[in-house]
Hints:
By secondary structure, the protein is an alpha+beta fold. The chain has helices at about 10, 30-35, 80-90, 140-145; strands at about 15-20, 40-50, 60-75, 100-110, 115-125.
Amino acid sequence: MTDERTPSADRDDQLDAFFVYGTLRPGQWNFRLIAPLVVETMPATLHDHVLYGRLLPFPYAIPGRGRVVGDVLRVDLGSMPEALRILDALEGYRGEGQPNHYIRRTVSVVTGRGALLSWVYLASMGASRLSPSQVIRTGDWCEVAGGGGEHR
């Protein structure tokens, strides 16, 4: 069961992980933007979400019946303000109530060590324009993007 929440100041100071499922994954183009701040990576799965990305330059995840394959990127808590600055800018997240390309939420993802609470960026603007033909049934964007996604 996925626990999806809006950001909360109470948790902001303790959350040290991001669940990434597209070009921010290790081996993908934009990982280099956050790599200097990453202290650990691990494979993870986000359940109860669907991944869109076929014939798109970068993927979008939204709540639904499915799963999204990705990685958890852990950063040192002292680096979180910089990590949030970098990733919010990349993902077009300006804050609650603002026009955002992606929205930032906390979710519970499953890793080899069990459940972990992480930030994730989910589709916001344009989500209504996604079509069933763009769903990646395996939930793994790397299967359709290859190793070098060049955009977001």
